[in-house]
Amino acid sequence: MNRNTRSGPERGGVWRVSTLLWAARHVAHLEGDFVECACYRGSSARTVADLIDISKRRHYLYDLFDHDPAMPHHQMAEHSSTLYDEVRARFPEPNVIITQGKVPESLVIAAPDRIAFMHLDLNNAEAEIGVLEVLWDRIVPGGILILDDFGWLPYYRQFNAETDWFTARGHVILEMPTGQGLVIKHA
Ligand SMILES: C[S@@+](CC[C@H](N)C(=O)[O-])C[C@H]1O[C@@H](n2cnc3c(N)ncnc32)[C@H](O)[C@@H]1O
What we know:
With 187 residues, this protein is of the alpha/beta class. It has six helices and seven strands.
């Protein structure tokens, strides 16, 4: 975390990253790629990539990387016209595929057929449901989905929309004290 983060608030996410590392290790025996929507600076994705062997699968990272006032996402400190290139430079591994653009629309540019682990951190209920509509069916049985911010009050729209979405599909979200939601895909 110290190597891959630049600020106190980023380091404050250590328990959330711990959940991601557990999930990534837990699915290591499964066939399927890793997905993160959205990666922002790439810090949590970089920490996962540093601690587990990522050479055996592809990692798909998505983000806008820049702020668009027309979009519902809030501006973050390091959004800029150069952030995509900076994040690209953090991942020299050829199996890390980084797509700039708005999900779910940008999933047509690049997306895996089989997913073992997916992390949704869009802070946007509509976009997260949009990604689930496209990618949930591609998560393999036993694969894990982590919903960042699921349990925090400011993101109650995500909580409500995702609870309804998974209830309709016979899956139960574990709400964690980190604010994350955790779903294990079953057949
Ligand atoms: C909280 S940050 C992600 C932090 C990152 N997961 C980490 O752990 O460092 C949220 C990101 O979602 C991105 N975002 C929001 N809506 C989006 C959308 N529809 N498509 C792509 N990226 C989006 C923003 O650009 C922002 O960088």
